[in-house]
Design goal:
The chain is of the alpha/beta class. The chain folds into three domains: 5-145, Rossmann fold (3-Layer(aba) Sandwich); 161-333, P-loop containing nucleotide triphosphate hydrolases (Rossmann fold); 337-475, Helicase, Ruva Protein, domain 3 (Orthogonal Bundle), CATH 1.10.8.60. It has helices at 33-45, 56-65, 82-92, 107-116, 128-155, 169-182, 198-207, 226-234, 251-254, 270-282, 308-313, 319-325, 342-357, 366-374, 380-394, 407-410, 432-450, 455-462, 466-475; strands at residues 13-14, 25-29, 49-53, 70-74, 97-102, 120-123, 188-191, 216-220, 235-236, 248-249, 259-263, 284-286, 293-295, 299-304, 328-331, 363-364, 399-400. Strand 2 (25-29), helix 1 (33-45) and strand 3 form a beta-alpha-beta unit. Helix 6 packs across helix 7. The longest helix has 28 residues, at 128-155.
């Protein structure tokens, strides 16, 4: 509940508590009760959410705490003029569309209103049909502009979303899910091991949605101390705690109309879980130290590398919050389950770091690429990125060689270790089959590299039949 009684009256806000946040919201400001009521009835009939204010101060307070799509204000009012309300409104939200009304036509006030950003000016008494038409035209233009932006982005996007790379079946399924859920406003839970690209997926969902022109704000819940997390998310008012010398907007307010991405949601303290649950249920919150409720029109995308169902069973995560977050879910595959994407990712990171460092490295040797493909990548894409960055920094030739890769990558099981040595002691054992596979893989990869990938020439170089050569290429997944 709000602490201000004038914010709870049924005559002020004509919107059901569970009304969709996507309906356009209009703030009507007029000191004449009959005009306010007439505008409320007419605009509500056209499908808008209508909020009423009977004076300028109340209007400004509402603008500070609630999101609006359009302002319709009288010019002459007892306390603050409509021009003053418009000036404050533009400071709060410069994109807010404003229509002004007055019964006392004045060129000076009209010029001032237009200078401040009003898009139209109505002289009372005016035609309600004309007002309805102008309002409808504005929202139709806005909708078409949003659809055109989305269409342009769709035409420029194929299987790749916001730097997410992958041709594997697993990643194609991820891209398909992103396309499906991006068009909704529903909460999403992204899960996957550390380094699989959960934030990139969250950004892809946002930038392929109708909210793409509004902010995307990301927060790692595990990186912020519990004592500061509430202020970071919900903001605070002056004097809320020692050092709070001024009001501060939280990330939910910063992301108004857009998306907030909460990474490592499993690290959030139980007290904060309760507050987040209220945002998801009621679309309202209170700033730290404040009493007024603030409306929140944000899409929440949460991510975790933990098993939240297990945490719920152990009492470490709220069950009701889990179900609120897990309305739509997306699980990212680990890199080891999509090894066919490793060459594509490695080439992408190679070009990225070569450009950043100004190096002359042009390619990755077949032997180095084979090592990359065999590594387990427990750190997933992030670990691969770090490995390529290191290799580019250390490489002195135009081709990344195995020696430039991290030790743990060069120690991949079954990797070719150079010329054969003496037979080890009987007690140590010897895996001849694994050594043979590494030997074949090594020389077939080198032959392909030397012949520019022409398999017939590579088979001739090794003295093999083309049929046998093709069999081993397929067996070892060489390209």
């Amino acid at each position: 509940m709000t602490s201000s009684s004038r914010h709870t009256g049924p005559a002020d806000v004509d919107r059901p508590r569970d009304a969709p946040a996507s309906r356009p919201r209009i703030l009507v400001v007029d000191d004449e009760p009959s005009m306010r009521e007439m505008l409320r009835i007419v605009l509500r009939r056209d499908g808008y959410d209508v909020v009423l204010a009977d004076n300028g101060r109340d209007a400004i307070e509402r603008l500070q705490t609630e999101p609006f799509d359009l302002l319709l204000s009288d010019i002459r009012m007892p306390d603050l003029s409509g021009v003053e309300v418009l000036r404050a409104a533009k400071e709060i939200n410069r994109d807010l569309v404003a229509f002004m009304m007055t019964a006392f036509a004045s060129t000076d006030t009209a010029v001032e209103a237009m200078r401040l950003g009003a898009v139209d000016y109505f002289i009372k008494p005016f035609s309600m049909d004309e007002l309805r038409l102008k309002v409808r035209q504005h929202f139709e233009t806005h909708r078409l502009r949003q659809e055109n932006l989305l269409l342009k982005r769709a035409l420029n996007t194929r299987y790749e979303f916001s730097s997410i790379l992958g041709r594997s079946d697993a990643m194609q399924q991820v891209f398909g899910t992103i396309r499906t859920i991006a068009a909704t406003h529903t909460t999403v839970l992204v899960s996957g091991e550390s380094g699989t690209g959960k934030e990139l997926v969250a950004r892809a969902i946002h930038f392929n949605s109708l909210r793409r022109d509004r902010p995307f704000v990301a927060l790692n819940c595990g990186a912020v101390p519990e004592t500061l997390l509430e202020s970071e998310i919900f903001g605070h008012i002056r004097g809320a705690f020692t050092g709070a010398h001024a009001n501060k907007k939280g990330l939910i307010e910063v992301a108004e109309g857009g998306t907030i991405f909460l990474d490592e949601i499993g690290e959030m303290a139980p007290s904060m879980q309760v507050k987040l649950l209220r945002v998801l249920q009621d679309h309202r919150f209170r700033r730290l130290g404040g009493t007024d409720e603030v409306q929140a029109d944000v899409r929440v995308i949460a991510a975790t590398n933990q098993d939240l169902t297990k945490m719920v069973a152990e009492g470490r995560f709220r069950e009701d919050l889990y179900y609120r977050l897990n309305v739509l879910s997306l699980k990212l595959p680990p890199l080891r389950d999509r090894a066919e994407d490793i060459p594509l990712l490695a080439e992408h990171f190679l070009q990225q770091f070569v450009s950043q460092m100004g190096k002359r490295v042009r390619t990755i040797s077949a032997e180095a690429l084979a090592l990359l493909e065999r590594h387990a990548w427990r750190g997933n894409v992030r670990e691969l990125q770090n490995a390529i960055e290191r290799a580019v920094a250390l490489e002195q030739t135009e081709t990344i060689l195995p020696e430039s890769l991290p030790d743990e990558v060069r120690a991949a099981p079954g990797a070719y270790a150079g010329p054969a040595g003496p037979l080890p002691a009987i007690s140590e054992g010897f895996d001849l089959e694994a050594r043979g596979e590494a030997f074949y893989r090594h020389y077939i990869a080198l032959a392909l590299e030397r012949t520019g990938g022409v398999q017939v020439k590579a088979a001739e170089l090794l003295g093999m039949s083309f049929r046998s050569f093709r069999y081993y290429v397929k067996k070892y997944n060489l390209k």
